[in-house]
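Ticket #4471: structure output looks truncated?

Reporter: J.K.
Steps to reproduce: submitted the chain below (144 residues) through the standard prediction queue, then opened the result file.
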Amino acid sequence: MNKFSSNEEHEKFLKEQCIFPLGFSCSVQPLSFFPQEKKLEKPFPMNLTLITLDNASDSFAGVFTSNAFPGHPVVLGKKLIKESLCQGIFINNKISNVCTKGGMEDSLTLQKSIEKELAAEGFILPSSTGIIGWKLPVDQMQAQ
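Returned output as attached by the reporter:
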């Protein structure tokens, strides 16, 4: 068992262990926002994670929930996975994008925005996890 003298030492260790295979890249961006659904005194934190392949690939697979009421990213992902080339996956935490008005449009907007920014040759698979019923802060997410 590893023991660390500080959080910084532990974080450094974790970063050294997190090495992606050749041809993959990862980016994590923090985002703070005020949700529409709840008044908060402090901004609500969220992480935006993008894992990409240097070159789009037709060698990919997906496992999706069997829930009868899947989130909008799951519904979109099931359609995208049938396409020929995958370029990566975009993950947000804190908000699941389930049971929200306009949630599918939000997923599509984010997906297309990332694909355009990357000049992607394949699709970017959306993924969300978190609170059900809250709307994604799409404008703030796109600004990141």
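Triage note (M.O.): checked the attachment and the full token line is present. The two ends are 37 Å apart (CA to CA).
Status: closed, working as intended.
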